[in-house]
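Model the whole thing, not chain by chain.
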Amino acid sequence: MAEAIAVPLSEVADHLPRSADVFICCASYESRSTSVATSLPSDLFRKVLICANKEFKQEIHENEERLLAHFGVKAEQVVLSHDDPFMGLDTIRTALVAANLGGSANVVVDMTTFTHEGLLILIRVLTVALRPGQKLLFVYTPASEYAVGLPSDQKWLSRGLKEIRSVLGFPGAMLPGRPLHLIVLVGFEVERARLLIDSLEPDAISLGVGCDSTDGANRHLPKNIESLNQISIHYPAFHHFSFSSINPYEAEASLVAQVALLPEMNAVVAPMNTKMSTVGAALLALKNRRVQLCYAPALTYNTPAYSSPADFCYFLEVDIPLANEVPAS
Amino acid sequence: MDFGGQTIDAWFQRQPSEEFPTGFDYQANYAALAANLVPLHKEVTPTANVIDGGYLTDHGPEHISKLLSRISELLKATPNPITAYECYLLLTAAQVHDVGNIFGRKKHEEKCREVMDDNLATLPLDAVERRKIFEIAQAHGGEEKEKLSSLAKIEHIRGKPVRMQALAAILKFADELAEDSERAARYSAKKGLLPPTSSIFHAYALALIDIHLDPGSGIIAMRFDLKKSDALRAFPKKDKQGEVIDTFLIDEILSRTLKTHCERVYCSRFMRPIVDVVGVSVHIDVTDDTGYTVLRNIAYRLEERGYPDADGKDIYSLCPELREWDGNGRFDGSHLARKLGMQHVI
Amino acid sequence: MSSDLDLNPFSVQSPERIAAHDVLSLFVEDFADFHQIHRAGHTFLHGARGSGKSMIFRFLEPDCQILKKKCPLNELDFFAFYIPIKEMEVKLTELIRLEMDGHGSLPLNEHLMTVNIVLKMFASLERITQSGEPPEETTAFRNFISDTLVRLLKRGGWAGVVPEIPAEGSFEQYRLVAVSLLEEVYSEISLFIQRLSLGGCLIYTGTLLGFKDFVRPVCAALRSMPFMPATKPFFLLVDDADNFSEEQTRILNTWVSSRGTAEISLKISTQRRYKTFRTISGQSIETPHDFSEVEISDIYTSDRDRYMARVESIVERRLQLASINATPSTFFPEDHKQENEIAKIAESLRATWSESGRGFRANDDAYRYARPNFIRGLHGSSKSGSTYSYAGFKQLVHISSGVVRYFLEPAALMYGEQTAANEGSAPVTAIAPHIQNKVTREQANRFLTSEFERIVREDGNLGGGDRATKLRNLLDSLGALFSHILMSDAAERRVFSVAFSNGPDDEVREIFELGTEYNYLHKSSIGKKEGAGRTALYILSRRLAPAFGLDPTSFAGYKFITNEVARMMMLEPKKFHNRLRTNHIDSVVDPAQGRLFEEN
């Protein structure tokens, strides 16, 4: 399956293979972290890994408990850390090893409320955990609204910039002496993107905007375009491009073209749009090891009203390059 | 550390394998390396002599044995044992530290790297571990005296803590102590067959009949025995500028024991609290030419005594940055006053 | 002239990208301040982002020096290599695995730094090609690459294939061979780093190089090239060394502590976030015996006239290059109506000085009180303090607080707005006062609000939300205090600084230092209230003057505050604000002790 299929939440289980082994999701302060999970029969999977960032323990508690209660004994908590990516990588890897994926196992990942970094690290671990013949399906519940309840001109999702770091598993090959090409998959967070660009001081900037929208009512796309316009005022000489917010393969193709625009430069990609496009960034960086992926966690998040869930989700099977298939450079 | 009457390399071989990082047989490979280097050690002195034209004291297998026994002596008394892995790094560094002399004396401590490259099969695969061995080995000598400060106090290698400065200091000091009569070309010296400007070094080595650490007092005891004829003889010796000057053996002894003291002071900064040596005591017997009758004996001790004495010394020798302050000569009250544009106030 | 400056004469470009001729046009050489920088010896150059450090480094590069000194390459007094430290190149998340799992963090980080620096040295040699006078005799350079460089790499464990090096080639061709060789070496460590993320076996079998065994001998060999200035030092201009991790910073300090500054001098710039001054052995490097130190902000806050003159020269040059026939003062005119009002007040003060004057001379009173009285008047019945205009070249320079970029960036925005206002029909020959005022106020608010949150990003991990809140409270409280004093009848009303009459305790000091680190405050020192010894003085950045309605033209006055008052400012700001409103200032803080400096 190369296209993401939109499926009502009530029909999610019908689209899953009967032999789904492991379900991985991330408990969050967003209610859509439970949308898909609670739509599935609790005994569908052999094993369920419920990830959660320890820094948000209080905010996610309710949703985490819901997930644990729903899946019962099959559920295992996997502690991630917003501040310590190594912790997340090690715990995910340990949990996957213990899950004992064998034969033609299927792994289903609800990527909706992973952080971009968390999702990327998970993908990186899956490149070594999965074997040829095993399948990886991604599920994503879009938001019907962001910053719920706030007027359009006052919506905020996050504030400030805590730090900038390369994503564990995607360090790229930053050849010293070569100029830096920063490629940003712009989302809604204008300030964070600007701070990122100001901090890295790239020699070339590519700002990408989504050419489609995950929400059925297409309200997110205009906001995305507006965000890009706001950012670009400050950087008049940027390269504009568009990418798919829904289809990771198309997003990957757009990124490949963007990197190829300035092949002699060190390319750093900052995925700040949908998780679907983040998967596209992962595919790019797994196949082109010279590309670095970076992540810029915010200082504060609008946890009480971050989003409200749509009543459908996207499904897609993704072929990620496995460790022994990945090129050396 | 209890070596059971043997030297440190035997102790090393007895350690359980769990003490070492996995993936490499440190004990077997060390033994293999040591065996492989024996023929090379034998070649070091003669080849170096050909290249440099002098006559080095022995740098062969006996010197390595002596070095290991000095290291053992220093570590026997320690309340702070080194680990088995640290021992591996130290022993391997000891094995390679002087092999660079085979390419000539100049920068020999750095040239051991080439010999290491020729013995990769018996060295760890990891370039980091090999570099640590090299760093410990090269710190023992060379024109630059202050090498130990640029090493880390503790580094983690293969998950194990390694006290780099201390290990390098122990090797350096033990090498200083590994100079005794067994290194000298005794017969050649006796027969006057040595190159003239090398003969004083052999005479010094021949005169040094004993050197050992007294663990109770922490004192290195050096004992010299020289005949009257040697005491009266003027040996030709090249100075730093390459000029040949006549030197008495006693003056060489004074100079070299002072160097031993300086090495002790310097190395102690880094090897305490593993090794604590507090002084060097020197005893010189000058005998008649039969060697039986002691005509004169001289004893002195090199150590820090009493309260530091500032008489005769000034702060400028301790703090060279005050010698040339603000680009304009010594820093003192008058200088500061001039800078401030004030008149001298009485 | 580059196209960016064609579009906007105040555009802030990365100095790396500015051509040598343009650098000479734009750069105002003021090396009386920075004499240590172009002398042999290690030097740290500290200054806020935008204070001109990178431009200084750019000016030191050989292509600029050749033009400046009008001499060939081999007659320069030094040869400088520009080494910018990019965060995403050196501070890779994977490297933390080395520390966590305890293997080879020091040698591997040193190797990464070594290759990074030497690669950039060779990249930097492109400046020779760009200078238009590349060496014609290239045999020595060719031999250096094929013999010395290859030998040193092999000594470090490199086992790659020696590339084909043409017998006859240009300097640039050989330079590219060297770059490609080093990039191959770099790729070894890069691949190793990629493996690190998943942990497991951390054995590294590639090349391993260090400062002593690679950087030094490479420099020694390059210095002996016929096109290099013989017996002159190399300067390695390490820009933004704050971007190194703590481990890498210790390694750099170890290099600083080693001898040989006659051959290699490290010139290291920081934004005052340098992580440590300790070496890998735990010792500290210190000034003056290990390095000299230049603090750009200190120079310009202690000698304001020099800074004013410098900015004036910079603006003059930029206007000339853009063919704009104006002086800085006419291009950035004051609000004449406002200045006329202030002049009237000044005249009135002169007239009444003999009866009720406070200053030594009539002009003193006019200078000290005219503008504050005007601002106070605005807050009178109409409560329209916000109508004070910050227009005028001098005010803009004062507000930039000693950092050139804080003048240029707003100026660029002003130019953009003025261009838009002219609707493309008339060239910009001046910036209207209302545009100057608007942009200045926006920038001040941005500095105080949204940038505030970004700037304390690194604090997030250390309970940062709490420290950030305290700092914000402190800034608001200081702003309120200084505003209150401005509106009062105090003898000195232009107060921008506080010092401590007791304490401060650790918590208070920490927050003040945090404010300094992020340029909200500048730290200096002053004699203690009791007379003996000195204490820290914290000067509020005048970039915040518009946010609090303060007069930016002077920061002469200071106040002593107690530790208790400082704690109230940070932890109970509402209580502090209430006290200010209800009590006399001197019962809230100590009476003013005097001025930092006299003004005419």
